[in-house]
Each structure stands twice: as structure tokens, then as C-alpha cells.
Write a structure and sequence with these properties.
The structure holds 2 protein chains of 2 kinds.
Chain A (H helix, E strand, L loop, with lengths): L1 H8 L2 H35 L2 H49 L3 H7 L1 H43 L1 H4 L1 H43 L1 H6 L3 H26 L2 H27 L5 H42 L21 E8 L9 E8 L4 E6 L5 H7 L8 E6 L2 E2 L5 H6 L1 E4 L8 E2 H6 L7 H10 L3 H6 L7 E2 L8 H13 L5 E5 L7 H14 L4 E5 L3 H4 L4 E6 L2 E6 L1 H7 L1 H10 L2 H5 L1
Parallel strand pairs in A: 3-10, 3-11, 6-9, 9-10
Antiparallel strand pairs in A: 1-2, 1-4, 4-5, 7-8, 11-12
Helix pairs in contact in A: 1-3, 2-3, 2-5, 3-5, 3-11, 5-11, 7-9, 7-10, 7-11, 10-11, 15-17, 20-21
Chain B lengths: L9 H9 L5 H37 L3 H54 L2 H6 L2 H43 L1 H48 L1 H6 L3 H54 L4 H42 L21 E8 L8 E8 L4 E5 L6 H8 L7 E6 L2 E2 L5 H6 L1 E4 L10 H6 L7 H10 L3 H6 L17 H15 L3 E5 L7 H15 L3 E5 L11 E6 L2 E6 L1 H7 L2 H8 L2 H4 L1
Classes of the chains: A alpha/beta, B alpha/beta.
Chain lengths: 578, 592
Amino acid sequence: MKSVMKELLGYKKELVLIVLTVIGTTMCTLGLPSLLTRLIDEAIPEKNLPLVFEVGGIMLLLVVVGILCGIATSRISSTVSMGVGKNLRSKVFTKVQHFSQTEIDRFSTSSLITRTNNDITQVQVFLNQCLRIAVQAPIMCICGIILAISSSPKLSSVLIISIPIMAIVLVMIGKVAVPLSTKIQLKIDRINLVMREKLTGVRVIRAFGTTEFESKRFEAINRDYQKTNKKMQRTTNSVLPILTLILSFTAAMVMLMAANQVANKGMDYTIGEVMAIIQYIMQIMMAVIMLTLVFIMLPRAATAAKRAEEVLNTEPVIKNKEVTKDNSDKKGYLTFKNVSFTYDGADVPAIKNLSFEAKPGETTAIIGGTGMGKSTIVNLIPRLYDVTEGQILVDGIDVRDYDTKVLRQKIGFVPQKAVLFSGTIDSNIAFGDANADEDRIEEAVKIAQSYDFVMKKEEGFDSPISQGGTNVSGGQRQRLAIARAIVRKPEIYVFDDSFSALDFKTDKLLRQALSKETDNATVVIVAQRISTIMEADRIIVVENGEVAGIGTHSELLNNCDVYKEIVNSQMSKEDMQR
Amino acid sequence: MSKKHKSSGKGVYKRLFSYFKPYKGRLIFAILFVLLSTVCYSLAPLFMGNATNSLAIIFTGGNGGEAVKSFIMFLALMGCAYLMNAVLSYIATWLIVGVTENTIFDLRKSIDAKLSRLPLNYYDTNSYGDILSRVTNDVDTVSSSLQQSIYQVLNAIFTIVIIMSIMFSISGILTVIGLAVVPVALYIASKIAGKSQKEFNKQQEKTGNLNGYVEEYYSGHNVVTVFGKEEDVIDEFEQTNDELFEASQKGQFLAGTLTPIMQNMTNLGYALVSIAGAFMAIAGGLSIGMIQSFTQYLRQFSQPLTQVMQITNIIQATGSAAARIFEFLDEEEEVKDTENPQFPSTLKGAVDFDHIKFGYLPHQTLIHDLYITIGAGEKTAIVGPTGAGKTTLVNLIMRFYDVKGGSIKIDGIDIRDMERSRLREIFGMVLQDTWLYNGTIRENIRYGKLDATDEEVEAAAKKARADAFIKTLPGGYDFVLQEGASNIAQGQRQLITIARAMLNNPPILILDEATSSVDTRTEVLIQEAMAAMMKGKTSFVIAHRLSTIKDSDNILYMQDGDILEVGNHETLMAKNGLYAKLYNSQFADSNE
């Protein structure tokens, strides 16, 4: 809750105002009975009509002030609780935007989404419900204690017994409820997980006819969640009846004590005093109950806040150095020097000792088996991860010495998973370069072999793209992602298996059109298909993170067995000879 | 479809309550217990008042023994009343928890059942986020408000009724004066509640926008990073965040004024009663004690009233959440299986596309007139440029979608005359996207045949060449896959899905670009295994690597939804048409 407290302290003025208006409301409510007493004790016996009007007038005034104070409290506390939620959300989102891939991997994307969306909402709801109570209860408590002790310290001593009893009961219930609450959170996560799986796997489920198996799987967790939830509800529901019971027995105790002291010890109380003390004690205990409500809701909110805080307290491993270099006169040079890379927590390196040098106009291809580290290599170039050993130079400068902004400006990256964002085709291409004019965007789309299908759409470049780009086909998505990179006019093009969803013809046309763009740039292509990469200036064959060979197609055919094997698997003999 | 309009109003609540039906008995008992506990609770102050009277006598020292006796008796009665109240109300909530939790369980179950009856079209045209939010968030909203409100509503209503009757018994006129403000208060409150509801709806909408935005940009985080767009993305986020703040702050503010207004309205009644009471007392006709106890009850009146007001808010939110759930439950379902399903007596696996016509949207036709007969045991390859309708063909054979014209027959029987479940049993498929669920690898492979033994599972994995990598994982076959199987590589995921299909071992196979993510050397091994599996079976292969399909019996060249060329590799190459062009383009680079 530390970060929440910090955010709250940003609203000092508002918090003071809440305290003042709550005191106002409390005073107005407490004032009415004493005014009534004045009516009863003075006005009625004296049959004093003007006094009735005077006191009645004050009462009405108090009601108006009470309403105003109440409205003001609501106004300020809603601003504070929603404001804290807003600021927290904004901070978490900003933080995540600056995360490197390492942190994203550590948390997992879906967990980060829940942390930003659900967890912060959870905190906000808690604040909204509890802020006022948290202010009001202590004020009530303090007022009550002062009033009770000032009228009779002896009778007030009941509190010394009943408050600890209350505390013990609450702690005992809390001991059961808090772990249950954590369990419930886990189980609802599981329900959501299975639901998600059922949505994404609908084709597989139907194809295998496992509908029944799936509904049993769901029913099991649904049942499990229901049981835990029942237990939790039934535990927390016991709080109120038990507390009410303690309250009423305390009142009875006060009366018994008073009767005993008057009858046996010759003390002297008036009935008014006893009644007053009971009222005050009730008020104190009500305040405690209200605070308990806060504490019942607190664990859930605290867990949520903690999850958000974990994000806030994580520092990205990739940051700009204090002094950055970016004054190179070279353009389009990429050098790997003895690069090794090990993933966070992995035992074996994903890349071992990779070295090569690429100049403008050259194409470097990376080929190799699945999970052999091809994507890892290209992810190192824009510093999605940092090398563990060795160094990567862009235009002669270590990538870690750049301002990441400047470095990434030089790179046109097409990721393996072609992600588009909701908006239009135009806005997605312009994502690559906000300053690109219409002509440039059209040019990029043409190079990416997308012009025809874009123009076929009713709204052309203004056609809407839905979240994740699900309303265009996989191949179209990939080509738009390529256009997005082209529009940047980068010095280094990186294609991470970006032609896989394209048919051979489109693949080839695209590469032909692209070659005119890349005269002054260097191109790095990760691919599975030999045909995509065979005319590259340099082919790097990766096997288990190690380089099995570097060279041109014909060189590798002669000296690299792994490469030969790959080629054999894709082409028949006659094809190779052609 | 008639129910598809925004179901609102009483219909929703009626329908929600229909879910309580199986638990009617328990609910009636719960209501009874609430009533009894409220009675106990309202009687207790009466006993306390009597105890106070006796205490007053003790204090003044008159009639010692009698007073002490009645004092202790009333005190004990009060204790009993409170004790009874506590026990009864706990039993009531215990019952209510059971009822609501069962209801929510049923609701979730019916949603789950609905999922299996929806046509594929629904999944393809609605975003997962939206469906998911209905089946999770909306159900959560309904569930938590049911838990909160049922007991409170009952309790509040009973309290209001009982207190009102006690007040009337003290003084009719004062009750009228004291409660005159209540309609006014209710009117104001309902106005405010209406306004705040508007803001809450807006808040709901903005929350949806914001959540969507977060989901989208977190999923595409690497793209944002490599394009250096962090600041722009944050700026846009701030805008939506501000809008959300605006709406939620207003909504909360308005809703938050309800309590002080209701409370002070009853305070107003209190003040008015005090003044009127003072007049009446001065005129003679009302005792001071009466004024005092009357005002006490009047104060107690405000709490349940405020509660009821707040609950109307909750009920509104429940209503709109329930409406969204019911809207989902009312979505049009898959066409039912025919009354008299047929099935080929001996399954050979001949597939006949008889002049089919199809389009995903009503006004758009993708496949105009497709016809081809595929003999049992033949291997058919489907090739063509992206978006040519290859995947659509699979959708139709599996009856994920129904044709708009013509028919598809398996061994002479129209697939629409078969039961879907039996039809799909005929097929084994490996799809482009490798769906695996959160469970062990063993469980995931067994998915192909739920009653398979461990040996069968491992044998299938070996055949799919997945055994080797599985054994290197910690726990081997018991290695637990995370959501989306994100803890293994894409190619490994593919191998597992292949193993799953192999275990299933059905008569007709559909391989949809199945091997595009497996590295080429592994692919060779898989191809061999596949070839063995395909032997004697009808199979459909959609692949980009033409070298793998040259031995097919039929090759369909598709473009824009129609089959433009049919034949085997040799005849098509001889024809020197589109297929030949595509095949040659594959290696054109090396010619230059």
C-alpha cells in the first residue's frame, strides 16, 4: 500500500478538507439531540414559543449545513479516490512502456494487463468505499472516548474489556478470511484462464469433439470456486452478528455496573448519565466496526496494490547511459563481436560467440531450426535484450552507448508476430514514421505488395483495423507490418521470419521491390525457407545457439552439413541443380 | 432474434430470478429467518427501555427488590433478543450465500454450455475481449451484488415496516410530519441516482476502452519499443485515462451525495418533529417521554432507507450486467443436427464437393461454384496465393460453417445430414494456430483421444518426433504448459499438436500449413511420419512448400475462392498454367 499512501499524500489539501467536512457532518448530527434536550428542558416547561422558534431555526440550519458538508465530502473524496486510481494507472502504464523485453518476460504480458486494469480498479474501489469511513471512524471514536470519559470514567472502563474481546474475535475471523481471499483470487484467475482457452481453442475443441471433456473441466473449477467462495462469504458474514452481540452485551454490562454501584457502593448516577454513556460507548464501538469493514476489504486491495507496486518497483535492465553517443558519420553498418546471450534464469546461453559484420547494401540471412536462437539474435539489435558477453555495434558505436531512441530510429523492425494496432491502415503505417506524407505511405505499401488489397477495400487506406489486426488475413497483416518498417527509411532492416505467411510469388515480388529501397541500408532476414534467403550476401546457420556456418549459398553447400541438410529437405535434387 | 434488442427493464430481473427457482425452498426459509431476526432486533430496544425504567427506580431507591428483579429480567430478555437476532441473521445469510453461490454456479455453467452451441461465426466476428468480459466481469458483478443486496434489501424492508408501525402506535400526527420528508427525499435521491447511473454507464464504456488499449499495447510492446513510440502511446493513454477519471469521478460524487442527503432529510424530519412536538407539548397532549422515544425511532429510520437507496444503485448495475449476459445467452445458435442423422455404413473417406457456394457475409460470395470429387484414400493438396480461400474450404468440410448453396458429401451422404460430433470424429486436423491448454504435455496429447493410455500417448509423441524434446524438459511428459504454451517454442508446440492428431488416428486428415513453423530438418522427419499416417487415408494438405505436395493425387489451385486448376503435379506442370508459374517462381531466383 506504500504507493497508494504516496499518491494519497499528493492530495493533502483535499484530505484536510475531507476531515473538516466530516467533522462538520458529525457535529451537525450530534448537535440535534442536545438541541432537543434544550427544547424539552427549557422551552416546553416555560411554554416559551419564541425559544421554540429560535432553537427550531438552529436545528433547521444544522440540517442545511449537514447536507452541504456531506455533499462537499462526497465531491472531494470522489476526486481523491478516482484521482489516486488514475495516477497509479498512469504510472504503471508509463513504467511498462519503458520496460525492456526482459521485464515483460518476467511478468508475462497477461499478468501485466491484469495488474494495470483489474488490480488498480480494485484499489480504486477500495479507496472509494473506505476513504470516508477511514476519516469518519477515528473522529467518531475520539469524540466518543472524550465524551464518555468526561461523563463517567468508571462506567467507561467497560471498554477495557469489550474492545479487546472485539479485537480477538476480529483477528480470529481475519485469520480464516485472509488466506481464503487469496485463494479466491487464484481460483477466479483460473476460471478466466480456462474461459480464455475455450475461446481461443474453439476450432480444436470442436474438431476433436471434446466439448464434454471441456465442460467437465470447466465445471470442476467452477465448483471449486463456488465452494471456496461459500466458505469465505460464510466466514465474513459472521462478523456483523457477533459484533452486534458484543455491542448489546456491553450496553447491558454498563447498566448492570451502574445498578450494582448504586445499590451496593452508594454511588450516585442519574438515568440521563447512564443513557449518555451507553450512547457514547455505542458510538465508539460502531466506529470500530466501521474500521473493521475497512480491514475486511483491505487485504484484497492490499494484494492488488502490491501487484501494481511490483511493476512500479521494477527497474528496466535496459536504460540509457548518462552520457550517450550518437555522432557517427557511418550509416548502415552492423557488427556483432563475439556476442553471447543467456536468457534471465536460463542455464545455457541461447547464443554463443556470434561474430559478423554487415555493410550497407548487404543482406544477412539467419537460418536454422526452431528454438535455435534466430529470433534472439535479431532481438539484440534494437536492444530488446542486452548481450551477456561481447558487443553489438551499429555504425561503429556500441548499441549500449546510444540513446535508445536514436538507435531504434535507425532500425526498421518486423517482428515474428505481426502485430497491428486498432485504427486504420493509414495510422498503422504511419506508426513507423509519424511525419510520413501520403505519397511515402503509398510507396511503402506498394513495396510491401499490399497496394492491391488495400485499394480493394472500400475505404482504402482509411479502412479500419481491429485490435491486433484480426480483420485482415495473416499474410496481409505481415505485409502491413513490413510496410510499417519500410516507411521509416531505416538504416537497418530486420525481418524476423516475416515472410512465412506469404506465398512464394508474393515473397519474391516483395523482396525484389525491397532491394531498390535498401541500397544504403543493411538487411537482416530470419527465415525458414531457403528460397527466401538463398541470394543473401551472408547466410548464418544457427544450430543450438551456435554458429554452424557463415557464408554464401554456394559456399555453405560445400562446407556446411547442417545447411546442406536443410536445403535437401526443402528441394528435390533437380531443384537444386536448376 | 426478437430478444436481441438491449434487454432492459423488468424482463432482466425476472429472468435473473428464474435462476433462483431450484433453490426456492431455501430462499423462503432465508426470508423467514431475516424477518424473525429483524423482529428480535426491533424488540430489543423495548426491553432495554423497560430495563431503564426499572433502573430509574433503583436509582431513586424506591421498591428495591421488585425493581431489581424486573431489571434483571428485562436485561436478560434484551440479551436473548440480541442473541436470537445474531443467530437467526447468521442462519439467514448462511442460506442466502448458498442460494446465490449456487445461482452463480448455474449461470456460469449455462454460459459455458452456450459457448459450445454457438456457431464458429460468432467467435470469428466478436472480439475475445468482449466475450470474455461478459462471461467473467459481468458474472462477477451480478454475483457480488447478489451476495450484498439480498440480505440487506430484506432486512431494510422489514426494519422500515416494523419501525413505522411502532411509530404510528406512538403518534399518528408526528409520524406523518416526520415521514413527510421521505417522499421528497426519495424523489431527490432517484433523480440523483438516475444521473449518476448515466455517468456510471459512461465509466463502464471508458473502462472498456482503456482496458482494450492496455491489452493492445502491452501485447504489442516489442513493436512499440522498436519503433520508439513509447511517449506517443503514453500520451494517448493519458487522454483515455483522463476521460475515465472525469466520468467515474462524477458518477461517484453523485452517488456519494445520496447518503448525506438521505441522512439529513431524516434529520430534517427529526427537527420538524421536535418543533411540532414542542408545540403539541406546550399545548398539552403529548408527554416528553413520548417525544424522546419517537425521535429515537425516527433516527433509526434513516439507515435502512439509505441502504435501500444505495441498493437501487447496485441493482441497476446488476441489471445492465445481467442484460449483457442474457444477450450473450440469446445469441443465435448453431443449426441443430437433423432429426434422422445418417452415417456411411462403412466409412471409406470419399469427399464430394457438389457445386458449393459460400461467403462469410450475407451479401458477399467468396466461393462461387466449386466442384470436385475426391476418391477415398487420395491425397489432395490445396495451393494458391494468400487469401485464396484455402482455410475457408477447411471450415466448410469440418462444418464450422455451412455452405450457402450446393452440398458437401462424404461417402455420398450430405454432411448436413450427419451429427456434427460424428462428422468431426472422421477428421484429424493440425491447424495453423497451435492451441494447447494449461495442463501437462501428456494431457495435451491425450486430448486427441481422451481414453488413450500413457503408452499410446508416448507412442504418438514418438511418431510425431516430439518425444525427444519432451524428454529434455523438466518432468518430461508431466511438464506443465503455461497458458498459450508460452513456455515452449512455437515449433515444439506444433510437434505436440501433431502428436495429438496422430493419437486420434482418424480416417480423414486435414493439415493446414501444419509444418510452417517447424524447422526444416524436423519437418523431414514429420513428413515421413505423416506419410505413414496418411497411407490409405483421405487427406487434405494446405502447404506453402510445394516440394512436399508433389506426390499428391490431386492438386487444387485456388484463387479468389474458386478452383482454377485441378490435376496432379505432372499434368499441371505440362499445362504450364498458374500452378506451373507458382512452382517455377519458387526457384526463379536461382535461375537468374
